[in-house]
């Protein structure tokens, strides 16, 4: 069940979470359950000195860019899903023999 990561790797992930990278993005990147990461953060956040929390280095910038891309993708998928639903409703309306919307036009 799950892979065991070294204490060093766990702390690296905790520091990235404390630096502002979303747990969901870290979970996907490291293939670890988000709740596991949250537990590590709870267990270790008080023992990590502020100066050890990474600033905007290239890795973190890439992670933040990935988060933004994922958010835009999720929004696009939602909009697309709504449009497909609207099209399906319109198709069903067109199939009706005596649709109410045509009576209102007369």
TrEMBL record:
Pfam families in UniProt: HTH_Tnp_1
Domain of life: Bacteria
GO biological process entries: DNA transposition
GO molecular function: DNA binding; transposase activity
Keyword terms of this UniProt record: Coiled coil
Coiled-coil region list: 56-86
Keyword Magnesium: no
UniProt protein name: Transposase
Native source species: Paenibacillus soyae
């Amino acid at each position: 069940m799950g892979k065991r990561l070294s204490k060093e790797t766990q702390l690296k992930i905790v520091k990235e979470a404390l630096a502002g990278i979303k747990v969901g993005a870290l979970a996907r990147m490291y293939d670890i359950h988000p709740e596991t990461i949250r537990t590590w953060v709870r267990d270790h956040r008080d023992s990590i000195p502020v100066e050890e929390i990474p600033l905007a280095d290239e890795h973190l910038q890439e992670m933040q860019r990935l988060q933004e891309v994922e958010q835009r993708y999720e929004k696009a998928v939602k909009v697309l899903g709504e449009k497909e639903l609207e099209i399906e409703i319109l198709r069903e309306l067109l199939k009706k023999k005596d649709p109410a919307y045509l009576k209102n036009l007369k």
